[in-house]
């Protein structure tokens, strides 16, 4: 075996294809994978990665691909970012685990301090750390129920909150997330999302009506007094990067406040500088009662958090929250390195700059390709939705064809959306502008090839 390649920002920042995609080494690994890894765990692009950093992924055949996925909005600071690697290496050499519930350590506290500093609002806050986004969402619901003494939880069409039992119930889409996995948790109520493109009478009607539709459904079908929490992604992720019209989130937060309902912003995908602010809620000055975070928080190590108003968080009795690995010291070290990088390199500003480059080029592309029905998102969380030209009928086949073209030409893109007809772009926030432009060029070629 040859020496292992080193990743991180030093990795040459260029696209370079030396074999077809996937190449022979990846195909051989895929064969081994298929005879040992469960079929239910799927793969978007079957190239096996050996190193990654900045805006590129290096595979087992020596191909270097442009990364517009960040491992699903995780490696916002770049893979193997210097501050993450340094802190993780130091921590691993010191100690790897004690269990914070048995004997604590400073890193956990420091992450909670950073969360208090960067999450929206200046009120007193508390945080609890977990391993995955789904676990954070589960705990946010537990906390909201305990605090309010109520049980009902309101979630939205197109929502994605995870794959555990409670979070599957909160997630809207059946295939692949829920099919055959019931029964699901009870006391979950679903209301329409303010989805401008697909609102019955269009975007203007969406802006005018969505909030009152949601409020009247909650009133008529659940009863405000029974609702523990309303949970919403400020920009929906897996559901299709759906951005509600201005006023919807603020109105929803006000409604919750008036009715003693805990307003939970699930910022697991939209948080940590992705949308050009530290959190997407900030765009309109929304201050959620609880915020769930994960993905971008720790540069790729598994960490998640619930952060919220001290009186809500502290309503839970000692011992009521926790988990063996929650806030693992190595993951906390990674989070501190990641947050430090976001601060020192102004990655929120970088995200805005990425949006400024991407959106005009995508809008121009949409002018010549009527399959692109919508260009939306904010900062470095951008998507295009594909339909049969002149209609709202989703076009998942063209979406898959564009993604396949990009993959074959060394650009990793991801799809999403309830109807599988959305291409989403989540580049690492440290990606170079040349690579970003080159990736957009490949995407343009992909549409030309349709
Ligand atoms: C990914 C995601 C989750 C689930 O996070 P996991 O770490 O995969 O459990 C929950 N909510 C949102 C908005 C997400 O994007």
From TrEMBL:
UniProt-listed Enzyme Commission number(s): 2.6.1.19, 2.6.1.22
GO BP terms in the entry: gamma-aminobutyric acid metabolic process
GO MF, one annotated term: 4-aminobutyrate:2-oxoglutarate transaminase activity
CDD domains: OAT_like (cd00610)
Keywords: Aminotransferase, Pyridoxal phosphate, Transferase
Reaction catalysed by this enzyme: 4-aminobutanoate + 2-oxoglutarate = succinate semialdehyde + L-glutamate; (S)-3-amino-2-methylpropanoate + 2-oxoglutarate = 2-methyl-3-oxopropanoate + L-glutamate
SUPFAM superfamilies listed in its UniProt record: PLP-dependent transferases
UniProt cross-references to PROSITE patterns, sorted A to Z: AA_TRANSFER_CLASS_3
Swiss-Prot/TrEMBL cofactor(s): pyridoxal 5'-phosphate
Pathway(s) served: Amino-acid degradation; 4-aminobutanoate degradation
PANTHER family, alphabetized: AMINOTRANSFERASE CLASS III
Family of the protein in this entry: Belongs to the class-III pyridoxal-phosphate-dependent aminotransferase family.
Protein name: (S)-3-amino-2-methylpropionate transaminase
Organism annotation: Trebonia kvetii
UniProt gene name: gabT
């Amino acid at each position: 075996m040859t020496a292992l390649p080193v990743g991180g920002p030093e990795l040459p920042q260029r696209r370079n294809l030396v074999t077809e995609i996937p190449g022979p080494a990846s195909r051989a690994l895929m064969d081994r994978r298929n005879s040992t890894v469960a079929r239910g765990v799927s793969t978007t692009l079957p190239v096996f990665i050996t190193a990654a950093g900045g805006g590129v992924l290096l595979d087992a055949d020596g191909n270097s691909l442009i990364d517009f996925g960040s491992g699903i909005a995780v490696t916002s600071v770049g893979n193997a970012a210097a501050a993450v690697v340094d802190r993780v290496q130091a921590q691993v050499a010191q100690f790897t685990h004690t269990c914070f519930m048995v004997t604590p350590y400073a890193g956990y506290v420091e992450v909670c301090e950073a969360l208090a500093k960067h999450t929206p609002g200046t009120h007193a806050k508390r945080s609890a750390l977990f391993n995955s986004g789904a676990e954070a969402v589960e705990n946010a619901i537990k906390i909201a129920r305990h605090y309010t003494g109520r049980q009902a939880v309101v979630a939205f069409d197109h929502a994605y909150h995870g794959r555990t039992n409670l979070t599957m119930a909160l997630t809207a889409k059946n295939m692949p997330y829920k099919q055959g996995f019931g029964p699901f948790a009870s006391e979950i109520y679903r209301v329409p999302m303010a989805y401008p493109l697909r609102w019955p009478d269009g975007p203007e009607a969406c802006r005018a009506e969505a909030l009152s539709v949601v409020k009247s459904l909650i009133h008529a079908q659940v009863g405000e007094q029974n609702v523990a929490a309303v949970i919403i992604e400020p920009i929906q992720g897996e559901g299709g990067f759906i951005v509600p019209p201005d006023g919807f989130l603020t109105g929803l937060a006000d409604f919750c406040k008036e009715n003693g309902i805990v307003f939970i912003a699930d910022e697991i995908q939209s948080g940590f500088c992705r949308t050009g602010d530290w959190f997407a809620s900030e765009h309109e000055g929304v201050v959620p009662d609880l915020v769930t975070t994960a993905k971008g928080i720790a540069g790729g190590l598994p960490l998640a958090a619930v952060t919220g108003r001290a009186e809500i968080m502290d309503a839970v009795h000692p011992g009521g929250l926790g988990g063996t690995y929650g806030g693992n010291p190595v993951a906390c070290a990674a989070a501190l390195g990641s947050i430090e990088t976001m601060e020192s390199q102004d990655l929120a500003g970088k995200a805005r700059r990425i949006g400024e480059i991407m959106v005009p080029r995508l809008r121009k592309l949409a002018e010549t390709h009527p399959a692109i029905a919508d260009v939306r998102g904010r900062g470095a969380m951008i998507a295009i939705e594909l339909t049969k030209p002149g209609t709202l009928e989703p076009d998942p086949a063209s979406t898959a064809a564009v993604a396949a073209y990009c993959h074959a030409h060394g650009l990793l893109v991801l799809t999403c959306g309830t109807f599988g007809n959305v291409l989403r772009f989540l580049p690492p926030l440290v990606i170079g502008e040349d690579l970003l432009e080159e990736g957009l060029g490949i995407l343009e070629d992909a549409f030309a090839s349709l």
